[in-house]
Design brief:
Blueprint lengths: L1 H20 L12 E4 L4 E3 L8 E5 L5 H8 L2 H11 L3 E6 L11 H10 L6 E4 L4 H6 L3 E2 L2 E4 L5 E5 L18 H10 L14 E2 L3
Parallel strand pairs: 3-4, 4-5
Antiparallel strand pairs: 1-2, 1-5, 3-7, 6-9, 7-8
Length: 201
């Protein structure tokens, strides 16, 4: 009696996992969204058609996020992307009461204190944008091309630690992907492993 139940449970969990991992796929249209930033302005993905868009899931209390912001790596890549005409959106999907949840003023204070340079910080406390993209970690990175097609998803780099000293030896996946696109080349690693803290939905 128990065996059929366990088999059914296993199948259900496998289907759920498959659905969760198939939230978005490289080469397919990226899910459209409407996200409100820290100033109360609504940003829709469709508004940026014709531009490259970078989505960065973030949580200021996560040691993996602190690794990249503390070393200036994330800010440098935000500025490099902007110099290429890309739109960089930082997304906070932490739910109220969870680690990383911030009010708009606090998010702006963090941006100033870290000298960060995103186009906007989107507040996603209900997790709608995060779940639409299947964002699992902070940071979790996505690149969307000018036609609205997802062309990269995964980690910011290849060394999955929280140690800033490891940044120098890492392959910088997002930076390289944007450089390859600017040169008219296909992205050499369009899907990589994201790492960091779990998104606090």
């Amino acid at each position: 009696m128990l065996q059929p139940f366990l088999r059914s449970l296993f199948v259900a969990l496998a289907l759920y996992a498959a659905g969760a991992s198939a939230a978005v796929r490289v080469g397919e249209p990226a899910p459209d969204f409407a996200g409100v930033d820290t100033r109360g302005k609504t940003h829709r993905l469709a508004d940026f058609r014709g531009k490259t868009v970078v989505l960065e899931w973030t949580n200021h209390d996560c040691p993996y996020v602190r690794k990249h912001y503390g070393a200036g790596n994330m800010q440098a890549q935000q500025r490099e992307a902007a110099a290429r005409g890309a739109v960089w959106l930082s997304v906070i999907s932490s739910a109220p009461g969870e680690q990383g949840h911030v009010a708009p003023a606090e998010a702006d204070r963090l941006t100033r204190s870290r000298e960060a340079a995103p186009h906007a910080v989107l507040l996603d406390p209900e997790g709608r944008i995060g779940r639409a993209y299947g964002a699992k970690t902070t940071p979790h990175m996505y690149i969307i091309d000018e036609t609205g097609r997802l062309v990269y998803m995964g980690g910011i780099d290849s060394v999955t630690t929280a140690d800033p000293a490891d940044i120098a030896q890492a392959t910088q996946y997002v930076r390289i992907a944007l450089q390859e696109r600017a040169a008219g080349k296909p992205i050499s690693a369009p899907v990589t492993r994201p790492y960091g803290c779990s998104v606090k939905y």
